[in-house]
Amino acid sequence: MSRPSRLQRQVLSLYRELLRAGRGKPGAEARVRAEFRRHAGLPRSDVLRIEYLYRRGRRQLQLLRSGHATAMGAFVRLREPGGVGGPLPDDGDGPRSPLEGARVPKTPPGGR
């Protein structure tokens, strides 16, 4: 097996630091693991995407380490119809509104 690249070592180090910083904060460890698993299949050649995610992870680590963070949750960006700037670009990080991808129960005929 070849030696890990510098970027791989940095990502693994970030993973360990995020897990340590998330200890004792509800939802943090599970969220860190889920995020890393979600992006584990990125090809090694997609360096720009990996570096972007690495920088984003560093910012989240700073927030977790600050004394103000008590838990780690998921943030959702909402689209404003006809808002300034138009629609948000899709960066592949999930739904853009709380209702996107939600199932709507079908009502039977007769309204009950």
Automatic annotation (TrEMBL):
InterPro entries in the cross-refs? Complex1_LYR_dom, Complex1_LYR_SDHAF1_LYRM8, SDHAF1
Please give the biological process terms from Gene Ontology that the record holds. Answer: mitochondrial respiratory chain complex II assembly
- Domain called Complex 1 LYR protein: residue spans: 9-62
Chaperone is among the record's keywords: yes
Pfam families attached to this UniProt entry:
Complex1_LYR
The cellular location(s) given in this protein's UniProt record come to: Mitochondrion matrix
Show the PANTHER family listed in the entry.
SUCCINATE DEHYDROGENASE ASSEMBLY FACTOR 1, MITOCHONDRIAL
Q: Which family does it belong to?
A: Belongs to the complex I LYR family. SDHAF1 subfamily.
Recorded protein name is Succinate dehydrogenase complex assembly factor 1
Q: Please give the organism.
A: Loxodonta africana (African elephant)
Identify the taxonomic lineage of the organism of origin. Answer: Eukaryota, Metazoa, Chordata, Craniata, Vertebrata
